[in-house]
Amino acid sequence: MRFHRVLAWGSGLLITVWVSAGSSEKMLRMPSVLAQTYQATLNQKMANLKKTEDRWIEINLSTQRLTAWEGSKPVYAILISTGKKKTPTIPGMFTIQSKRRIDRMKGDGYDIDDVPYAQYYSGGYAIHGAYWHKSFGTPVSHGCTNLAVNHAKWLFNWSKVGTPVVIHP
């Protein structure tokens, strides 16, 4: 079983999770109480990171902003583009798993060569430069977090494999 897609709707924070188990997919809905508990857990993890001097990345899906932190000090903040409704960026607590200076990204409805400064944090989900659009501040991606290339370069050089990534609504 693996999580396939996470979507959040409305102010009641109902989260729908698509779960793959073999060849079938099922939809689970988390009631508002579970969604609030999940958000509280992410908030606590961010509070704990702020008590350290560690580098970490915050991605705010509501404001379409990425902030690079060193403990409790924000050191870099930019507008980003995360996933659109049909291909959302998944919220959660992750770490950078791998980094590629240039990569090819292929999926349903896209095939892009020379994607710069890709930092993978969960399967095919990555933070990377996007030279093909300038719609930062608006969710337009297939689930990844798009940055202007110059910002992606800065973040790529600042972070390392193992850097925490917190993505929240």
How would you describe this structure to a colleague?
Residues 54-167 form the L,D-TPase catalytic domain. Pfam families: YkuD. It comes from Woronichinia naegeliana WA131. This protein has a single domain (2-168), classed as L,D-transpeptidase catalytic domain-like (Beta Barrel), CATH 2.40.440.10. With 169 residues, the protein is of the alpha+beta class. Residues 1-16 and 23-27 have low confidence and may be disordered. Strand 4 and strand 5 (65-70) form a beta hairpin. It contains 2 helices and 12 strands. It has helices spanning 32-50, 149-158, and strands spanning 2-9, 14-21, 24-30, 55-60, 65-70, 73-79, 92-95, 98-107, 110-122, 125-129, 145-147, 164-168. The strands form 3 sheets. Strands 6-5-4-12-7 form a 5-stranded mixed beta sheet, covered by helices on one side. A 4-stranded mixed beta sheet has the order 8-9-10-11, covered by helices on one side. A 3-stranded antiparallel beta sheet has the order 1-2-3.
Secondary structure elements and pairings:
Layout: E1 2-9, E2 14-21, E3 24-30, H1 32-50, E4 55-60, E5 65-70, E6 73-79, E7 92-95, E8 98-107, E9 110-122, E10 125-129, E11 145-147, H2 149-158, E12 164-168
Parallel strand pairs: 4-12, 10-11
Antiparallel strand pairs: 1-2, 2-3, 4-5, 5-6, 7-12, 8-9, 9-10
